[in-house]
Amino acid sequence: MGIKTLIKNKYRQIQKRKWEKELEDINIEDLIKKSEYINSLCVETYRNYPTDKIVHNLPLKDEKKKYTDPDNWDITDEEKETVIKYMDDLYAYENIISHIFRNCKPPQKVNLTILPPWIVFPAYRAGGSIVWKMGPGESYIYLFSRMIEEMDNDKLKEYKAQYPVPKYMEDMMNRLDLEIIS
User: Fold this and answer.
1) pLDDT at residue 76, rounded to an integer
2) What does the radius of gyration of the chain's CA atoms come to, in whole angstroms?
3) Is 25 a domain residue?
4) 180 lies in some domain
5) CB under 8 Å to 98, separation ≥6 — which residues?
6) What confidence score (pLDDT) does residue 128 get?
7) How many whole angstroms separate alpha carbon 57 and alpha carbon 148?
8) Which residue ranges of the chain lie beneath pLDDT 70?
9) Does the residue 15 lie in any domain?
10) Is the N-terminal amide bond of 106 cis, ω within 30° of 0?
11) Is residue 152 part of a domain?
């Protein structure tokens, strides 16, 4: 192993420890409450789409415009400000998780229990949404899938009881072939 590789590996270890320390400082219960607040504002529409039988998102002024655009959310300005702040906190958590795993070379077992995607991205639609196919949603789903696949049966049973899959996410979890639905 060359000196460059040794330096690079040491740098990755330092970065990983830094992100792990930041993760320790996060109040997970607070994040869950923030996600629950956002979910309490969301509406569900039942459709006959192959990838989205239940469309779950914040109320929209115009269905044809982006559901991720705050200007299109049909909620009060105060609710909008709160949702944006809470989403920023949830995205900060996602960013820390992604950095921890990005600095694990070669890929290692997921030794960390992370929040499920429906908590971290409470206003994202399931199924056919592009947010799960690129960017932070894609990375997070990958890490979540690895974590679920590596759990033993007892740990998985405990995780499923703690974080039940909401109805709108069931089709997506089935497509990922994860045994997460109770």
Assistant:
1) 97
2) 18
3) yes
4) no
5) 136, 139, 140, 143
6) 62
7) 25
8) 1, 49-52, 103-111, 127-129, 181-182
9) yes
10) yes
11) yes
